[in-house]
Amino acid sequence: MAPAEESHAGGDGGEAQGCLHAPGLIGCLLSGSTPSSWCSWLLSLYVFPAMTMQFISHRFPDYHDPTIEDAYKTQVRIDDEPAYLDILDTAGQAEFTAMRDQYMRGGEGFIICYSITDRQSFQEASEFKELIYRVRHTYNIPLVLVGNKIDLQEFRQVSRDEGMHLAQEYSCPFFETSAALHFYIDDVFHELVREIRRREKSLPQAEGKSKSKDSLWQKLKGSLKKKRESPS
């Protein structure tokens, strides 16, 4: 477990119009046995698309349409090893929610997000680990807990101590971030990749990466693309 004091105080100067306050989940799958063959995908589940936008392009969206799915690709270096990221923001589409169990089976790590300005989002975020356990039948899953919108202090409903306590229960790193100001957004994604790499090194080789997870990712993207292109 990365220590909870790894948490950071940042700020969140507002939010894009159309963004939701519900808790969010970002999953990550890494594949490839050598640094040169790292290939990963990240999936942003139905909220906090601004975090994905900031990580990819270092900009905060003025407006977010929660009915539109967006896909992004980028390459980064984390601890001198390359990571190729294919990120899909499903933007809260109900059809993806229906596929949540399949997604949780495919993801190798998850970022659990909540808004510090919305207690209900924190309460719902506290249930995500159990949802993952129900699907995966193990608590040994890389996680990072994130409290977003930290500079809206006048609207804070969830204390930093509460976030740290939940992270201790989850045995995972904790960050407070600002998607609007790009405070600690990169740190969150990088730490998740580190957590996944640490877990992979601890597993027997037979339990390593599976091509079926790449296949699942393609099916999820294909399903959402068809829905987006279909006439209303």
UniProtKB/TrEMBL annotation:
Residues 222-232 have a biased composition (Basic residues). GO terms for molecular function: G protein activity; GTP binding. It holds the Pfam family Ras. Residues 201-232 are annotated as: Disordered. InterPro entries: P-loop_NTPase (IPR027417), Small_GTP-bd (IPR005225), Small_GTPase (IPR001806), Small_GTPase_Ras-type (IPR020849). GO terms for cellular component: plasma membrane. It comes from the Eukaryota. Gene3D superfamilies: P-loop containing nucleotide triphosphate hydrolases. Its main location: membrane. Keywords: Cell membrane, GTP-binding, Hydrolase, Membrane, Nucleotide-binding. Its EC number is 3.6.5.2. It catalyses: GTP + H2O = GDP + phosphate + H(+). SMART domains: RAB, RAS, RHO. Residues 201-216 have a biased composition (Basic and acidic residues). It is found in: Cell membrane. GO terms for biological process: signal transduction. Belongs to the small GTPase superfamily. Ras family. This is small monomeric GTPase.
